[in-house]
């Protein structure tokens, strides 16, 4: 469903941010990418929907290489990839339901976007999605008045409005308190189980990964150092994922 | 482009003041320079001020006649050569001139701003538009009106086009600045959902910029009102500025000038109240 092959990326042309990253994810699973800060987790996620143009490799989404698409094709492909962010990135002056409805604008005409024309069916769906994330009472609240956890749930509803095959989550819980963290992660896991959506999450927190992931990809210094089911994530594996960059060269890394 | 300031050497400075008190700042060279500049300027001002006074000048008499004129204007305002209704109509003309130029200017400037914000437009276009606008802004509004009056003749046409011209340049700059404040992540998020540019502008850029759009447009309306008065006097564009010019320079009737000044002040007060209301409305 999504396969990444030999992805490489360098921001300044010299220092490699990603070197030869390959992995694939399956539908209906929660895949978690863990690794130290600066390891390249965000770069991987953003390369998938080409927010970052990578330097080399291929990203096969539904058997099309995202890197080969032209602008219009890329835009259409992005419509089926949901994304949620650490800072939620909602349009704060607008209401929750308006933000959710943005999710369906990608597939529609210019005029629809300019005049905010939505069918009743779409509005009903948006309300249903808000209900699904437990925010039906806040549909007409300006997003700037919502709490962090509520904003993230609006973000999830917005991503679901895209009818995504995959949802990319860039540190979705890094700004949240423990209770909101559990709410958000529960919703994400339910999406994978009940709706068959692939969920790919960047995380700092290994304990959260243990509770929610089906599959774990460990990244260190721009390389995949662990790629296995969650059951195989031993303490030594974690130590290897989080070890200092300096020890990386020529160590056990090349087994993977 | 902002030039980096010259490097200031800070670490070796010694705190001034008695040892037992903790200073809040180091005394550095820049502060010393500013202080010296102020002292020199003050000294120059004081020694040159007497030389500006002409020989025949009597300070007492001049102050008396100044007070007399102020008294005539502000304490004895009444009309002689025109009627109050005519003045109100002239004030209305000036307001409409300001309104029309602000309206056209803000609409044009919005599209120029979209093309010259770093968030949406390529760098060459941003720099191109911004530098043209900077040149237009550098020339005062009244001068633009006079330049256009070469083509259209003195009068309302030159006034409308000249004031609009400067308004567009001014508003393009401030609108583009307020669009630049929008986080690039927001635009990226909308792109990641596959939205078209038109939808991104309408659904993300505009909602964020409405408050600053309103307040800047209103400020420009106030500026245009002042310009409309000046242009009325300078370029014969009509309105209360022309009436002011006639009473003060043609009839030398300061009683009448007083009435007009009060009228303009009253309208300025109304504008101030409206802008305050607008601010509380948009910044809930």
From TrEMBL, chain A:
UniProtKB keywords: ATP-binding, Cell membrane, Membrane, Nucleotide-binding, Phosphonate transport, Translocase, Transport
InterPro entries membership: AAA+_ATPase (IPR003593), ABC_transporter-like_ATP-bd (IPR003439), ABC_transporter-like_CS (IPR017871), ABC_transpr_PhnC (IPR012693), MetN_ABC_transporter-like (IPR050086), P-loop_NTPase (IPR027417)
Domain ABC transporter: 2-246
Keyword Transport set for record: yes
GO molecular function: ATP binding
Record-linked Pfam families: ABC_tran
Domain of life: Bacteria
SUPFAM superfamilies tied to this protein: P-loop containing nucleoside triphosphate hydrolases (SSF52540)
This protein's record includes keyword Cell membrane: yes
Protein name: Phosphonate ABC transporter ATP-binding protein
Organism per entry: Secundilactobacillus angelensis
From TrEMBL, chain B:
InterPro entries per record: MetI-like, MetI-like_sf
Primary site of residence: membrane
Domain annotation ABC transmembrane type-1: ranges: 91-275
Membrane topology classification: Multi-pass membrane protein
Keyword Transport appears in the UniProt entry: yes
Keyword Oxidoreductase: no
Subcellular location: Cell membrane
Keywords: Cell membrane, Membrane, Transmembrane, Transmembrane helix, Transport
Transmembrane segments: 32-53, 84-114, 145-171, 200-219, 225-245, 257-278
Matching PANTHER family: ABC TRANSPORT SYSTEM PERMEASE PROTEIN P69, PHOSPHONATES TRANSPORT SYSTEM PERMEASE PROTEIN
Entry similarity comment: Belongs to the binding-protein-dependent transport system permease family.
Record-given protein name: ABC transporter permease subunit
């Amino acid at each position: 469903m999504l396969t990444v092959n030999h992805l490489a990326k360098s921001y300044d042309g010299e220092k490699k941010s990603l070197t030869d990253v390959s992995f694939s994810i399956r539908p209906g699973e929660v895949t978690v990418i863990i690794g130290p800060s600066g390891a390249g987790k965000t770069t991987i996620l953003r390369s998938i929907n080409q927010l970052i143009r990578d330097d080399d490799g291929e990203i096969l989404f539904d058997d099309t290489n995202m890197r080969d698409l032209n602008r219009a094709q890329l835009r259409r492909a992005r419509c089926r990839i949901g994304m949620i962010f650490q800072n939620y990135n909602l349009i704060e002056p607008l209401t929750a339901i308006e933000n959710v409805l943005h999710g369906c604008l990608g597939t529609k005409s210019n005029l629809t976007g300019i005049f905010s024309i939505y069918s009743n069916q779409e509005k009903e769906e948006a309300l249903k999605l808000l209900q699904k994330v437990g925010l039906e009472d806040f549909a007409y609240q300006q997003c700037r008045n919502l709490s962090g956890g509520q904003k993230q749930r609006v973000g999830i509803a917005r991503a679901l409005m895209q009818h995504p095959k995959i949802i990319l989550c860039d540190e979705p819980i890094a700004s949240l308190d423990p209770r909101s963290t559990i709410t958000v992660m529960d919703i994400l896991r339910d999406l994978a189980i009940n709706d068959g959506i692939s969920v790919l999450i960047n995380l700092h927190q290994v304990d959260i990964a243990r509770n929610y992931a089906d599959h774990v990809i460990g990244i260190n210094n721009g390389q995949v150092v662990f790629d296995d089911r969650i059951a195989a994530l031993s303490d030594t594996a974690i130590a290897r994922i989080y070890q200092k960059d300096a020890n990386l060269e020529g160590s056990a890394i090349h087994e993977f | 482009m902002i030039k980096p300031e010259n490097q200031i050497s800070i670490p070796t400075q010694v705190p001034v003041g008695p040892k037992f008190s903790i200073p809040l700042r180091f005394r550095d060279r820049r502060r010393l320079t500013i202080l010296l500049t102020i002292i020199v300027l003050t000294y120059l001002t004081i020694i040159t001020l007497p030389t500006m006074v002409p020989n025949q000048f009597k300070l007492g008499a001049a102050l008396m006649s100044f007070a007399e004129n102020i008294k005539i204007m502000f304490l004895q305002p009444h009309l002689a050569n025109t009627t109050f209704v005519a003045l109100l109509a002239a004030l209305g003309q000036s307001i409409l001139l300001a309104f029309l130029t602000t309206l056209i200017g803000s609409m044009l400037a919005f599209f120029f701003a979209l093309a010259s914000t770093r968030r949406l437009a390529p760098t060459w276009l941003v720099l191109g538009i911004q530098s043209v606008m900077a040149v237009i802004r550098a020339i005062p509004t009244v001068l633009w009106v006079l330049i256009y009056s070469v083509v259209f003749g003195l009068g309302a046409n030159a006034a409308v086009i000249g004031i609009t011209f400067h308004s567009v340049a001014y508003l393009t700059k401030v609108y583009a600045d307020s669009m630049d404040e929008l986080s690039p992540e927001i635009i990226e998020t909308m792109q990641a959902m596959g939205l078209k540019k038109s939808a991104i502008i309408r659904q993300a850029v505009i909602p964020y910029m409405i408050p600053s759009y309103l307040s800047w447009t209103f400020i420009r309306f106030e500026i245009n009102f002042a310009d409309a008065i000046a242009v009325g006097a300078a370029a014969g564009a009509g309105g209360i500025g022309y009436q002011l010019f006639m009473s003060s320079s043609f009839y030398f009737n300061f009683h009448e000038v007083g009435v007009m000044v009060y009228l303009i002040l009253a309208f300025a007060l109304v504008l101030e109240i409206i802008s305050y209301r607008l601010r509380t409305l948009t910044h809930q």
